[in-house]
Amino acid sequence: MIAEAGLAALWLAAALALLQLAFVWFGLTTDKEDLLQSVRPVAVAQGALTLVAFLLLILLFWQSDMSVALVAANSHSMKPLLYKIAGTWGNHEGSMLLWVTVMGAAGMAVALFERALERRAHMATLGAQAAISMGFYAFLLFASNPFARLNPSPPDGQGLNPLLQDPGLAFHPPTLYLGYVGLSVAFSFAVGALLTGQVNAAFAKAMRPWVLGAWVLLTLGITAGSYWAYYELGWGGWWFWDPVENASLMPWLAATALLHSATVLATRDALRAWTVMLAVVAFSMSMVGTFLVRSGILTSVHAFAVDPTRGTFILILLAIYIGGALALFALRVDSVREGAQFDPVSRETMLVLNNLLLVVILGLVLIGTLYPLLTEAMGYKVSVGPPYFDRIVGPIAIILMIVLAAGPLTRWRRDSAAAVGKRVLIPAGVAVIATLVLAVLAWGRIGVLPFLGLVTAAGVAVASIAPLWKRKLLRTPLFTWGMVIAHLGCAVSLAGMAADSAFTVEKLAAAKPGDVIQTAGWTLRFDAITPIAGDNWTALQADMRAERGGRSTAIHPQARFFTTPPTGTTEAALLTRWDGQLYVVLGQEADQGRWQVRVWWKPFVTLIWLGGILIALGGVLALVGRERRGWIAKFRRREAMAA
Amino acid sequence: MAMKAKHQRLILVVAALVAIIGAGLLAASALKDEAAYFYTPNDAKVKGVEPGRAIRLGGMVVKGSLKRESDGVTIRFDVTDGKATVPARFSGIAPDLFREGSGVVAEGAFDRSGLFVATNLLAKHDERYMPRELEGMTYNETTHKVEDK
């Protein structure tokens, strides 16, 4: 009965979404106040029903109810509980249900908590949100029903791809989905503002927390995904320009641009049309990302679903929403009044540069990701790989970092080039010193791009904390701290990327127990190979001791074998030190009792993800800092009313 | 000195267009070089790939061609697409599902003698995964015939 109840909840939620859209439409066109009065309760009920449907699906996975097709295809009764539950969204249908659930919950939040927005714009926003939800309900109910039954039911399930049985990955997809959906809310705000002619600072202020929240989650999702690929795939790389990675990077790039232009709109009331356009682009990228991952058009580790009807369905949704939004934009852009003016040398100009560069990178990644699909549709196969992306994205990213350094040191509205030049003098000096030091120490041994990366990172790190210079730190607003920390995070991450590609040492050996491997100041003693067993896997484990500077630590790289489905994975052993990570992989048995062992010493590689966490932390501080002002104001108003 | 309202909007639009067109041109020029990133052995023979250039070579591992060298970490094998065959060498840990008669995408470069030196091998990650460049390619183990749909 649980599955049927879940399906009923889903149908009911879809019906409510239709009702919500109708109420908004007729309420706004005929000015019927009683219709508009009912929009918010309907939005809340719709969100609650999606939550019920999702909880019921989790319950089915928890109980390992194999009569439900989805559970049978993706779960197994012997699987650890965490992965049974994570299995709920580790598949196509479940992840789409998660999508509509988050969307429903977000609609609920917009209905309950949004107060700053003008009422008609608020209603139009909820209408747009309902219109988007309806497309996804239709997709779930007609093309990917998660509650479908199986008759007869099999004795047990087929299991979950072992690569995905990892605590980090259990929470990686939901994090990204939350980010995607957050951008859909920003999109709804933009549509609402366009429809009611309210593209102004209030709109930007209402939209910004959603953009910030979505952006924080995307940042965390990408950081976690990168770290997962790094330790789980056992290749020692942290970014592969895999289309699925690009699918998460593109919305992030758009959200980063939107975040900055929304700040210009909220504080200076400039860049109105541009901000609306970016909101449309950001959500479009979420849709493109979902299409790439969910349509099965890519054959890669992540894209497990192969079913063309679904791809076509998402493509149609994509065309309707993006096409509709662009048409609306074209029709209504005249109603968007000119915003405030600014000088060529000003913070606004810097942020425009930031936006342009981000959009260029986004375009390059998009073309590189879609080009192979287009040519394949035309009948020949090409493959666009890291050489394309590294070569063209790398240099532009470095230019972007330089703008990032100078932007916060430039005044709003109007500044002089000489004054800005004076303020970037110290960071530029640091970059020059870094250049000289690196040139002396490592000239000719490292590539141009890593070299530039390290130098830029040094300069940007100093420039990013410069806005705190001569300020009372405790009285500095929280959102300024947020900006400083996020920008510092970019420098830290860039330093990690550049250090990894510049200084990594790799050693490959065939060794038998008793052998010693030496590389990059480390001594690795290979003691033994032992077989071990886990919940649903067996493994061969190498017992090793890694020594450096008289200190010895035991490490255990493994080669794991899963039975359902039959698959092998490598579990790299990672040893983290302040100055880098030792990365050891156990390979296959060679000959004469020898085993393949691959060892990397990766100086400062952890800075990559530390930077990602700092960026997200900066976003959280900015979010709390901005919102707290609103809370305090609200509290004071309430106090005043009570008195 | 603030610009006239109309001018500022115009400048922003022009800047955006220039950025987007610039991105397009940059992508097109880079793609012209890099789109020829994936080669089958026959492509490599017909088009020619200069030694040292990073490419992806994809095909089937010829049955009986896989040999292990005495250092324990280097393997040699032949890659074929049915029309041409290329000898390849790889030092490292081959993926679990890398085996003879199975599809492989090797990342690396040709050396001067025409040997493909692979720095990375992509094989099937699990039973359902196939490097996308090899989709539709099948290998007949007895006749060594390769068909590409």
Q: Which terms summarize this structure?
A:
heterodimer; A: alpha+beta; 4 domains; 4-stranded antiparallel sheet; 18 helices; 10 strands; 12% strand; B: 149 residues; alpha+beta; OB fold (Dihydrolipoamide Acetyltransferase, E2P); 5-stranded mixed β-barrel; two-stranded antiparallel ribbon; 2 helices; 9 strands; elongated
Q: C-alpha Rg of chain A, in Å?
A: 26 Å
Query: What would the average pLDDT of chain A be, to the nearest integer?
Result: 87
Overall helicity of chain A: 55-70%
Given the structure, what is the number of helices of chain A? 18
Describe the protein in words.
The complex is a heterodimer of chains A (643) and B (149). Chain A has 643 residues and is an alpha+beta fold. In chain A, helix 5 crosses helix 7 and helix 6 crosses helix 7. Helix content of chain A is 64%, strand content 12%. Chain B has 149 residues and is α+β, with helices and mostly antiparallel strands. Chain B has 2 domains: 35 residues; 111 residues, OB fold (Dihydrolipoamide Acetyltransferase, E2P), CATH 2.40.50. Chain B contains 2 helices and 9 strands; from the N terminus they run H-E-H-E-E-E-E-E-E-E-E. Chain B has a 5-stranded mixed beta barrel with strand order 2-4-5-7-6. A two-stranded antiparallel sheet of chain B has the order 8-9. The longest helix of chain B has 30 residues. About 3% of the residues of chain B have low confidence. The interface between A and B is large, with 53 and 47 residues.
Task: Please give a quick description of this structure.
By secondary structure, chain A is α+β, with helices and mostly antiparallel strands. Chain A has helices spanning 2-30, 33-62, 69-74, 81-86, 92-113, 119-143, 167-196, 201-232, 243-268, 272-294, 308-332, 347-377, 386-406, 417-423, 425-442, 448-465, 478-503, 607-642, and strands spanning 505-511, 516-519, 522-533, 537-548, 551-555, 558-562, 567-571, 573-577, 580-589, 595-603.
